[in-house]
Amino acid sequence: MNGHSEPISSAKRLRQMLSDPSKTVIAPGVYDGISTRVALAQGFDCLYMTGAGTSMSRLGMADLGLTTFVDMHQNASMIASINPSVPVIADADTGYGGPINVANTVKAYARAGVAGLHIEDQVQEKRCGHLSGKLLVSREVYGNRLRAACRARDESGSGIVIIARTDARAGKDTEGNGGFDEAVERLKMATDIGVDALFFEAIQNEEECKEVIKRLPKIPVLLNMVPGGRTPIISNDEANKIGFRIVIWPTAGLEAVVPALEGAYGAIKKTGKTPEEQRMGPGALFEVCGLEDLMAFDEGVGGKAYK
């Protein structure tokens, strides 16, 4: 015995955060190492790895289900490793196949240090939850996905938080089942199966926000805030008052970055140089991603390379 206590796992930390029914966990969307570092520097105590952001940043492609398990797992693993004490909730899309694939995804995310993930009920050829024309799998197939996820959580002993997402509000299955009531029924089924939290995608207005909380089982419910999407933007405080226990802001970082990049690259094209106001220099840039800490570590173990 060395007297050191075991560090608390990120999944356990997220569960502790969700154990207070009066509190709401706020998670900004991150998609790469720099966005993760910047969000951590702002003091957030939870992060959300956006699937749309992963698709755009890693593949340069719109969110139409082009990311594979490997793309998503590698990105989630890197993001979760930057500060393991801050829980990361990660998009896991459909689980990337049948029940065996779903179980593999859950166990791999858990081994990577991801605190929570969500599994949805779209077909494999999925798309962003705020686009039209979404096609769903049957309740039976969705239930099998969730049972696989919960069993993998339990068998792994990781306690990773399983979040059931339904796209039924703005999508339909092959039998034509969809809409608000179908979404509610699917999430009630998910609760019976044993998931830890619920994600009702594409809520249409503030009245529906209240109705969602009223009609869903009393386990944590996640609110997805996508400016310009189907759900009206409400503040974190308002979401908390309505009763949402997790609020994610998947595209917040991306929406800030794209205009900034357009300005910088546009200036080089038009004026032949970068804008004066953005000249941080390499030292300041590297400091965003831990330069001082890395140099201090090297010196602390006797290294002299970075003095």
TrEMBL record:
It catalyses: (2S,3R)-3-hydroxybutane-1,2,3-tricarboxylate = pyruvate + succinate. GO terms for molecular function: methylisocitrate lyase activity. InterPro entries: ICL/PEPM, Isocitrate_lyase_ph_CS, Pyrv/PenolPyrv_kinase-like_dom, Pyrv_kinase-like_dom_sf. PANTHER family: PHOSPHOENOLPYRUVATE CARBOXYLASE, PHOSPHOENOLPYRUVATE CARBOXYLASE FAMILY PROTEIN. This is Uncharacterized protein. It comes from Oleoguttula mirabilis.
